Amino acid sequence: MSDSPLLQSREEWLASLPRVYAAAGCLITDPQGRVLIVKAGYREHWQFVGGTVDLGENPQQCAGRELQEETGIEREAGELLAVAWTNPSTELDHPACHFLFDLGTIDADTPITLPAGELDAHRWAEPGEALRLLGPARSLRLAAGLQARADGRVRIVSSPVSGF
Predict the structure, then answer these.
(1) Cα separation values, 39 from 46, 50, 133, Å
(2) E strands, 18-164, where?
(3) What CA–CA distance (Å, rounded) separates 75 from 65?
(4) DSSP character for 120?
(5) Measuring CA to CA, which residue among 46, 57, 47 is closest to residue 22?
(6) Bridge partner residues of 35 (DSSP)
(7) What string of pLDDT tens digits covers the 164 residues of the chain?
(8) By CB count within 10 A, which of 38, 103, 147, 164 is most buried?
(9) Is 7 part of a structural domain of the chain?
(10) Spatial CA neighbour of 25 closest among 98, 88, 87
C-alpha cells in the first residue's frame, strides 16, 4: 500500500477548477465627454453596452459584437482600458472577469437602435452622473476606464460587488 496520494485524471482536475464568467463592455463618449450607457428593465442600475463573451470569440470581438447588437453601430473595439475582477457573491456563484474596451467617440445624435426586449433606454451621461447611475461595480470600471484613456495605462480593479 502506497502513502502517495492518488493523482486525478485530467478531466477530474479540470472539473475541480473554479469557473469564471467573462464579459466585455464598451466605453463610448460623445465629443462633450458624456458617456453612453444603457438600461435593461430587469436590472436596477444602468450599464455599459456589452455582454458575455460567446464561445469562439475573444473579449475584444465580444465588445464589437455587443455594440452592434445593442446599438446598431458597427465599430471594432479599440484598446483595452480596464480589467475588473469580482469574486463569487450571492448574485453569481463564480468569479467574473470584465474587460472594458475603448470604442471611441461618436456624436450624440448618432442613431441608436436598442434591441426590443433586452434594453429599454440609452442616454449620454456626464461622467459624474454615469458613476452614480452605473452602481458600485460598474462605476469602478468607468473610473478606471476614464483614467486609462487619459494616461494610456490599463487598470486592473477588483470589487466585492458583481455588477455583472
Answers:
(1) 5, 11, 10
(2) 21-29, 35-39, 49-52, 80-86, 96-105, 121-125, 155-159
(3) 9
(4) -
(5) 57
(6) 29, 125
(7) 556 567 889 999 888 888 899 999 999 999 999 999 999 988 888 999 999 999 999 999 999 999 999 999 999 999 999 999 988 877 778 889 999 999 999 999 999 999 998 999 999 999 999 999 998 889 999 999 999 999 999 999 998 776 66
(8) 103
(9) no
(10) 98
Residues of the domain holding 124: 18-159
Q: What's the grid cell of residue 136? A: 458600485
Q: Which CATH number does the domain housing residue 100 bear?
A: 3.90.79.10
Closest by CA to 65, choosing from 108, 106, 21, 115, is 115
Cα–Cα nearest to 50, from 29, 91, 30, 22? 22
Q: Looking at the 3D structure of the chain, how many domains does it have?
A: 1
